[in-house]
Every structure is written in structure tokens, then in C-alpha cells.
Design brief:
About 30% of the residues lie in helices and about 25% in strands. It has four helices and six strands. It has helices spanning about 10-15, 60-75, 80-105, 145-155, and strands spanning about 5, 50-55, 110-115, 120-125, 160-165, 170-180. Strand 3 (about 110-115) and strand 4 (about 120-125) form a beta hairpin. Helix 2 (about 60-75) packs antiparallel against helix 3 and helix 3 runs antiparallel to helix 4 (about 145-155). The longest helix is centred in the middle third of the chain and has 22 residues, at about 80-105.
Length: about 180
Amino acid sequence: MVTTEREGGSPMMESRGSTPPADSPAGAVDAPPGGGAGGGAETPRAYEGVWRFTAPAVDLSVPQARHAVRDLIRRQGVPASDDLVQGLLLIVSELVTNSVKHAALLSPELAVEVAVGAEWIRVSVEDSHPYRPRPLETDYAQTGGRGLLLVREIAAEAGGVCDVEHTAGGGKVIWAALPLTP
């Protein structure tokens, strides 16, 4: 089961320590909904905000998280192209799958966060496992292990960025921020 909270309702969100550097494009989406996510004193658009989904670290959570993100983007009226949404959903699938496969033993629950600013959308997956993965290089002989590489490629192709960071609680958060317009 996936549960949802809007920003302000979760103490974990306030202390998770996964804000990207202020000078990165992703920094713009971390401002709270009332704080002008575009960087100025503008009134936020109706689709701007931060939502957090929590789910158990099990295989069934992968499609549930993907559907929850897709439904949220539609419900909020986020001005994202179909290609952008498909890229975001693939990123969510890869990151949740990685958390389920590699972190479930130490992190029985994971969190997916969607932050939408005036010009950017950011998705992140957080778990309590301390290992900070690095993308593998392309090795066509391997049948797996390239999920983070794929996430980086999708983000770069869309003009976005991604990173892996430690959380204040000793876990990690992996995020990707993509521009709403190419």
C-alpha cells in the first residue's frame, strides 16, 4: 500500500537532508509551495508543491509508485510533455526497484517524493540503507546493474540533473530533476 503526504505533514521531509545545491537547477523545486519555487516572489502555480509517497520495500511497490507519480502529475495538471512523463516514470521505476532489490533488508520502507516547481520537476527515492551507489559503466556483458546509469542518461537527455546524497538519518536519497520545458 502506498500512502501519501503533502509537504508540511512529515517530520522526515524536514530533516532528510536531500536538498540539492542552491546553484543547481534542482534547487528551484525544493522551495515550499508558498515560497515561490521559481526563485522570486511570484505566486506559485496551481501545480507546484511537494508530495511524498511511502511504501514497503517489496516488488509490488514498483508499479504502485509509478502509477502514484503518474496520477499525481495528471491530477495536479503539471505541464509536462508525454516524453518527460515517460522519462520520469522510468526513473521512478529504476530507483524504486534499486531500493527494493538492494536496500530492503536494512530499509523495510522507502519514500518517493515528487517536487514540482515553476520550471522543474524532481523525483527522489529515499531509503534507510547507508550504501551510496555509483553508476556502473556500460558493460554489455552484464545483464543488470545499469539502473543508475540509465537514470543519469534520461536526466541528461532531458537537460536535467541527478545525484545521490546521504540523509541525516544515515540512509540515502537519489534524485533526478528535469526541466518542464525542453
